[in-house]
Design brief:
The complex is a heterodimer. Chain A is built from 16 helices and 19 strands. Chain A is α+β, with helices and mostly antiparallel strands. In chain A, the strands form 4 sheets. In chain A, strands 7, 8, 9, 11, 15, 16, 18 and 19 form an 8-stranded mixed β-sheet that branches. In chain A, strands 1-2-3-4-5-13-12 form a 7-stranded mixed β-sheet, sandwiched between helices. In chain A, helix 4 packs across helix 11, helix 5 packs across helix 11 and helix 8 runs antiparallel to helix 10. Chain A starts with 8 loop residues before the first strand and ends with a strand. Chain B is α+β, with helices and mostly antiparallel strands. Chain B has one domain: Archease domain (Archease, Possible Chaperone, Chain: A, domain 1), CATH 3.55.10. Chain B is built from 2 helices and 9 strands. In chain B, a hairpin with a 2-residue loop joins strand 5 and strand 6. In chain B, helix 1 runs parallel beside helix 2. The chains are: A alpha+beta, B alpha+beta. Chains A and B meet through helix 8, helix 10 and helix 13 of A and helix 2 of B.
Chain lengths: 485, 153
């Protein structure tokens, strides 16, 4: 892949602008959050070109943003944020991604590393047994067509109603675990058929379930409000999305959008950016279907969180309540949302596409949960399985600058093939074990693809968003046990 | 983009390059070849299943007739691959031979040969979740046809 040779203007140490003049057709400039060092790797591929291409989309306001974990995606870059005026803007399924509402849920415990480490193998085995994972994995809950329709509308609440979790979990889930406007009539039979057997499964690829140890607390006040109080405390991170269901919804609607592009005379630099006016029937249909998939993903993470609690309870012989297993937060990082933002002093309703980006609302925002009103919405940023993950909070700066958005993870640096080749002949499981990380996976070959070398260092990613002020880092945790699909 | 692995598949028309697998940062791509458009579609499907499993391990125990339609030839290729991805995801069927009966710019009929996925017998290499329009290229040259597709895994 050729290096990107386009024009970048330095704004400050963490902000780089692609001017509108770079390419005829750009409606707004591009803005990349990165350090100078990270920029080197970002420009190693054509990723900035994708940032510029997104700026072509009708109705885009502000900037076409790229977070520091940005990497090359389809049409939209992964790590991209774009807000479109709902009056004359477009919605693009490519700006959400295939895995609709891929996201992260963090649970805390009152257990310490000293209590868990001696039993880590037992615990990992119990989790592996209790949480269906891997390719073609099917859930232990059977979902009928009628139930599927309810699940699509109710989201995480559907699972809570079945006894999988509590009302309190919903309070600390983005959107309360349910995006409004879900319309099951916009879901194809194919999508429903893919979704029904996979509800309540972790899946494969980069999805995982991780037992973590808190290693560093940067802001003890905010951390304590999240229930993260001590170094050595055990946390559990769940990373998964809407499985084959979301993929089918995206595939189905991309096809519809293909037609819409010519119908509405939209000029695009890349076919994968296919979109339709937000107010059009095609746009509204996609939003209704996307909400179904988003809700499916929240129900999915809700089920998995329940089985995580059950597994801990079985191994430690205490109830999840006694083990202090409460949810810190749950964020979506592949989604489009209709939100109100202030642009040049005017309130504007926009559709914010976050593809590989996390909402980062500040203290006091109406959508920041009551318990976090004082400190801001938790932002969960998982790293790769060999390094660490971060907990941060949203800021006012994010609200005024990046439509309340920040990074979502480490961001891939090597392709799966290159990662596999770089790990050839090496025992990934043994190497992780030597560093105190127990891993269980259904697929050893995919494990090599997810090796640390394949990803940017999440520490650099979080430092950029922290110094740029679009989130504030709160705590860092390292993995002790990992389940990979 | 770097061509990482060259799969020389001993195809049914002699020792001919049927497809290549290419790297893409987050995902993976294929380049399929064909002396005619039917062979191109057949080889693209074979390339897809070579990402999922070892096609040699699949026996032709039954066949399934498929019909796919679309607006143009490019999207027909994507629809065709997505149909096969769907059948694997929902019905767990692995195919390794494709007989394209008819193919126009907006529709195809094919008979696909294969068997049900058996975890004891078939090694699963990757879960392919969707064929994308990203960097999609379908070209005709003097040697025949060539198509590039990026797959989401």
């Amino acid at each position: 892949m050729a290096r990107w040779q386009g024009q970048l203007i330095k704004i400050d140490d963490y902000r780089w602008k692609i001017p509108e003049s770079y390419k005829t057709g750009m409606r707004v400039p591009g803005l990349i959050y990165a350090s100078k060092e990270m920029l080197e790797s970002i420009c190693g591929e054509q990723t900035p070109e994708q940032v510029a291409n997104v700026a072509f989309l009708p109705g885009i306001v502000g900037y076409s943003f790229a977070m520091p974990d940005i990497h090359w995606g389809y049409g939209f870059p992964i790590g991209g944020v774009a807000a479109m005026d709902i009056k004359d803007g477009v919605i693009s399924p490519g700006g959400v991604g295939y895995d609709i509402n891929c996201g992260v849920r963090l649970l805390r415990t009152s257990l310490s590393e000293a209590e868990v480490r001696p039993r880590i193998n037992e615990l990992i085995n119990a989790l592996f047994h209790n949480v269906p994972s891997g390719l073609g994995s099917e859930g232990k809950i059977k979902v009928s067509q009628k139930e599927m329709n309810q699940l699509m509308v109710e989201g995480a609440r559907w699972a809570v109603k079945r006894g999988l979790g509590s009302e309190e979990d919903l309070d600390v889930t983005e959107e309360g675990g349910c995006l409004s406007g879900a319309d099951p009539s916009k879901i194809s039979d194919k999508a429903a058929k893919r979704g029904m057997p996979q509800a309540g499964t972790l899946g494969s690829g980069n999805h995982f379930l991780e037992i973590q140890v808190v290693k560093e607390i940067f802001d003890s006040h905010i951390a304590s409000i999240m229930g993260i109080t001590e170094i050595g405390q055990i946390l559990v991170l769940i990373h998964t999305g809407s499985r084959g269901f979301g993929h089918q919804v995206c595939t189905d609607h991309l096809r519809v959008m293909e037609g819409a592009v010519s119908k509405y005379g939209i000029k695009l630099p890349d076919r994968q950016l296919a979109c339709a006016p937000i107010e059009s029937s095609e746009g509204q249909d996609y939003l209704g279907a996307m909400a179904c998939a988003a809700n499916y993903a929240w129900a999915n993470r809700q089920c998995i969180a329940h089985w995580v609690r059950e597994s801990f309870s079985k191994i430690f012989g205490k109830s999840p309540e006694k083990l202090g297993m409460r949810q810190v937060y749950d964020v979506a990082h592949n989604i489009a949302k209709i939100e109100e933002h202030t642009i040049d002093g005017h309130k504007l309703k926009v559709c914010v596409h976050r593809k590989g980006a996390t909402r980062a609302f500040p203290a006091g925002h109406k959508d920041t949960p009551t318990c976090y009103k004082e400190v801001g919405q938790p932002v969960l940023v998982p790293g790769d399985m060999g390094r660490c993950s971060f907990v941060a909070v949203g800021t006012q700066k994010a609200m005024t600058e990046s439509f309340g958005s920040t990074c979502h993870g480490a961001g891939r640096m090597l392709s799966r093939g290159a990662a596999r080749r770089s790990m050839q002949g090496r025992d990934v499981v043994r190497e992780l074990e030597n560093r105190g990380i127990t891993i269980k996976t259904g697929s050893l070959s995919s494990l090599a693809e997810e090796a640390s070398q394949a990803y940017k260092d999440v520490t650099e990613v979080i430092d950029v968003v922290h110094h740029a002020g679009i989130s504030r880092k709160v705590a860092m945790a390292i993995p002790m046990g990992v389940i990979k699909g | 983009m770097e061509i990482s692995l060259l799969f020389l598949y001993n195809g049914f028309r002699g020792m001919k390059k049927a497809f290549e697998v290419i790297d893409h940062t987050a995902d993976v791509g294929i380049i399929a070849y064909g002396t005619d458009i039917e062979e191109l579609f057949s080889n693209a499907a074979l390339a897809l299943f070579s990402l999922i499993t070892e096609p040699e391990s699949v026996e032709r125990k039954f066949h399934l007739d498929l019909e796919v339609s679309s607006e143009d030839i490019d999207s027909l290729l994507i629809e065709w691959l997505n149909e096969l991805i769907y059948l694997f995801d929902v019905k767990h069927i692995l195919f390794n031979h494709f007989d394209i009966k008819s193919l126009t710019h907006n529709g195809l009929k094919a008979t696909c040969y294969g068997e049900d996925f058996d975890p004891m017998k078939h090694k699963i290499k990757a879960g392919v979740k969707a064929a994308t329009y990203h960097m999609l290229k379908l070209d005709k040259s003097d040697d025949g046809f060539k198509a590039q597709v990026i797959l989401d895994i």
